[in-house]
TrEMBL record:
Source taxonomy: Archaea, Methanobacteriati, Methanobacteriota, Stenosarchaea group, Halobacteria
The organism's place on the tree of life at top rank: Archaea
GO molecular function, one term: ribose-5-phosphate isomerase activity
Keywords attached to this entry: Isomerase
Gene coding for it: rpiA
Species annotation: Natronoarchaeum mannanilyticum
Protein's name in the database: Ribose-5-phosphate isomerase A
Length: 227
């Protein structure tokens, strides 16, 4: 993914700043994407300096990065809870999120929702007055046609996400496909989230409603924290 120099620096600041929130003995959810990657690397540096944490990865990508950073890993079903999760987002409006640009939103939502505290790390380009990006919807492959019909009746325009480097759809870590669904401006994210969750064949969607505790917005010269 191409990012401007300013955006890249903002992502780095946002991601790295959240590593300071991690405390000794905690179980930490490790989000997916280029901004969360900065947090993972910074936590790895802290582990090298003696911080005792266990990470719960949210994707193949974040697991690989955490292994490289030498963060001890556990799966969600091996721990009593998650103290803190750090994750990126594709759009943020009033604390509500659209996620799933990396097709990892199903595992991300499970880990983020399980965490006592969710810190979201973004650059300023992710901020909006209203959510209006397409909503990623992870779908069981055989259910795609019926889910597409249901999404259309909900006012959406679904497009199957295709893989950039090979002829075929993106396949998630869970073996499913992703429909990117345009709804225009989303005035009631909680209502749409509930409707999407009720569609048989939908594994998970990328609307994260009332999950974020803090939004860390990286800037050229620092980080704004919104609660
Ligand atoms: C992956 C996600 C990512 O957190 C989201 O796409 C943001 O990525 P980046 O920090 O690279 O902009 O939801 O499913």
């Amino acid at each position: 993914m191409k990012t401007s120099g300013g955006s890249a620096a903002a992502k780095r600041r946002a991601g790295e700043s959240t590593a300071d929130a991690v405390e000794d003995g905690q179980v930490v959810g490790l989000g997916t994407g280029s901004t969360a990657a900065h947090a993972i690397r910074a936590i790895g540096d802290a582990v090298a300096d003696g911080l005792d944490v266990r990470g719960v990865p949210t994707s193949f990508q974040s697991r690989q990065l955490a292994i490289e950073a030498e963060i001890p890993l556990v799966e969600l079903d091996e721990v009593d809870g998650v103290d803190l999760a750090i994750d990126g987002a594709d759009q943020v409006a009033g604390g509500q999120l659209i996620k799933g640009g990396g097709a990892a939103h199903a595992r991300e939502k499970i880990v983020d929702a399980a965490a006592d505290r969710l810190l979201v790390v973004v650059d300023p380009g992710k901020l909006a007055d209203r959510l209006d990006r397409s909503v990623p919807v992870e779908v069981l492959p055989a259910a795609r046609p019926v889910v597409e019909d249901r999404l259309a009746t909900l006012g959406g325009e679904p497009t199957l996400r295709s893989a950039e480097r090979k002829d075929g759809p993106v396949v998630t870590d869970n073996g499913n496909v992703v429909l990117d669904c345009e709804f225009g401006a989303i005035d009631a994210p909680a209502d749409l989230a509930a409707e999407l969750s009720s569609v048989p064949g939908v594994v998970e969607h990328g609307l994260f409603v009332n999950l974020a505790d803090e939004i860390h917005v990286g800037r050229e010269d620092g980080v704004d924290v919104r609660t």
